[in-house]
Amino acid sequence: MIQIEHVYKSFSGRTVLHDVSLEISEGCTQAIIGQSGSGKSVLMKHLIGLLRPDRGRILVNQVDIGQINYSELREVRQQFGVLFQGGALFDSMSAFDNVAFPLRTFTRKTDQEIQLEVQKCLDLVQLSNIGLKNPDELSGGMRKRVALARAIALRPRYILYDEPTSGLDPETSNAINQLIKGLADRLDITSVVITHDMHSVLSIADHVAFIHNSRMHWNGSVDELQDSDDEILRSFITANEYRIGPSSSS
Amino acid sequence: MSSAFKSLREMKMYRENFQTELIRIGIDSIPIVSLAAAFSGAVTTVQTAYQLVSPLIPPKIIGAVVVPSLTMELAAVVTGFILSGRVGARIAAELGTMRVSEQIDAIEAMGLNSVGFLIVPRVLAGIVMVPVLYITACLVGTFGGILAAELTGVVTAGEFLQGAREHFDNFGPYFGLIKAFVFGFLITAVSCYIGYYTHGGADGVGRSTTRAAVMSCVLILIADLVLAVLLL
User: Fold this and answer.
1) N or C: more exposed end of chain B, with fewer CB within 10 A?
2) For residues A180 and A232, what is the distance between their CA atoms, to the nearest angstrom?
3) Domain of A108?
């Protein structure tokens, strides 16, 4: 379980997170939504200790990650897989080596075992034959899928997705959404999805938290979200429906 | 036990990175450093001949001036300047791109120490390879000087080497090696620091690259003077 307790964060005097609290249960898919610049990605970086809160605390399995040393923090981070917004694939390595990287670094598997494991991960993200290609030879959707394969290579307990469908066409976005849902079900992973794409939220999330003006404005299940009459939340959802077209959100 | 094993696996990755950097910083720089050193040696020889040689001064004095100039100053500074542009800018651009494309965050998020993984191998490779390049520059520069002397006819190779031997100061090469060691550390450490803390997208990477090259050159000049004052 991940607990975010009264987190405050500001950069150069500009408040990005103000008294944000949230509890993410094991096995569920939690979406964190909000407008661009509302602090969603900053909150995600707090979950793995890439950023430290000015006040408040983050607990991962009851461990306050602000109170542990760097070596303990690294142990906590190894329970996470992270899909960054642009994929963050290492340019100097092929797609295969990107996925193999965590296996080579953190496991004692032989080269043959690593090859099998990488192939399994690439199969899971439906990219079986692109292993030798470099990241710059891949499309945006393929890069995100390779990054996802890398994120699940060590079978993490939690996966964090930062804007998994941003910059992708609707068809590829749907494929990524299905992939996220499929992985959560098949690998029993707790997922945290940072997004402003309501179509994505409705397809994959169990719970939704809405950040508005740096504060946790609304928090509840997807059913509650659809029934909510909160004006600001409705306005955010409506804007999204308008952008993606009413038919695709229904 | 498991964490000790993990450390060993990580050490293997760090070692591989270190070996790659030895090649990229050291071996790959040999042609350009050699070229610059050869021309420096040749030009110093021709200019020394022009300034010093007269019926009252023996021609062998050219070797006595050129070789210490190379070992104590030119080989180290020319190598440093070339590496500031070639290696410093590359390191800053590489780490800067990794920073703005979240690759460094990805390394940290996996539970790897990004400083240990990216910066330490580069700085260590700089400290090891710049002295090696300095030695190469001294040898090639001396050869360039001899060649220029022979081709222009100002002094024979024998006289050049005789002059160099007679006025050889044992401390000269050590002084040059100390400089090369310090320059190697400065170029890689400054460029890594600037690249690692890049922000602002492609524009930020461009600024970091320029800053790394300029800062490395300025620090080399300052360190050159400080070492001369302290050690001579």
Assistant:
1) N
2) 28
3) 91-155
Neighboring chain A residues of B95 at a CB cutoff of 8 Å: none
Put simply, the answer to whether A88 touches B97 (Cβ < 8 Å) is no
Q: Do the domain assignments include residue A136?
A: yes
Report if residue A216 sits inside a domain: no
Say whether B67 sits in a helix, a strand or coil.
helix
Count structural domains, chain A. 1
CA distances from B56 to A241, B59, B61, B106 (A): 94, 10, 11, 69
Reported as a single tens digit per residue, the pLDDT across A55-98 is: 999 999 999 998 999 888 988 998 999 999 888 999 989 999 99
pLDDT in tens, A114-152: 999 999 888 888 887 876 889 999 888 889 889 989 998
Residue A224 lies inside a defined structural domain of this protein:
no
- B165 in contact with chain A, both atoms CB, cutoff 8 A: no
Chain A residues touching B98 at Cβ < 8 A = 90
Q: What is the ipTM of this complex?
A: 0.85
Please give the C-alpha separations between residue A130 and each of A138, A182, B128, B173, in angstroms, as whole numbers: 9, 21, 38, 53
- Tens of pLDDT, residues A174-218: 888 888 888 888 888 899 999 988 888 988 999 999 999 889 999
Whether A243 has its CB under 8 Å from any CB of chain B: the answer is: no
Question: For the CA atoms of chain B, what is the radius of gyration?
Answer: 21
Structural domain spans, chain B: 10-46+60-231
Domain membership of residue A81 (yes or no) is no
Give the distance, in angstroms, between the CA of residue A33 and the centroid of all CA atoms in the same chain: 12
